[in-house]
Amino acid sequence: MKLNLFPAASVRAIAFMLLVFGLALPVRAQFGPETSLRVGVFSRALVVQAFYRSAIWNAKLQTMLAERNQAVKGGDAAKLDAIDRELNDMQSLAQRQVNGDAPLNNILEPLAAEWPAIAKEAGVDIIIERPIFLTPGSGVTDVTPFIVRRFTGR
Known about the structure:
Layout: H1 6-22, E1 39-41, H2 44-52, H3 55-74, H4 77-99, H5 105-108, H6 115-122, E2 126-128, E3 140-142, H7 144-152
Parallel strand pairs: 1-2, 1-3
Helix pairs in contact: 2-4, 2-7, 3-4
């Protein structure tokens, strides 16, 4: 006697499909409350100028000039040349930074501990130099005055 298993197998398959797909509860991704990102931007040129006029920069420059004077008094021509090269390189770096051709690492690093306070004071969540793209009506705040204030003390 030959049994035809097709009807029984197909009924089981249909029942299984209904169970799996038909009775599945809708799944929704669980996200927290919707938030908006507040972006702070700054003017490179103004931040660079403020840094190179700051007490931080002046202290570094005075230290280098004192070392240079010691090299002159001691007759250490090699050290004098090295300091002069470094001063010239720093002048070149400052010019390239204003033009946007060099990173601002030496300027932004002294503010590492200040970034959270700057962001809070400005009311922003993120600080960037300049956005590549912004949708119309995006919440953007200029944080340049908050950064410059850290260098000038005003």
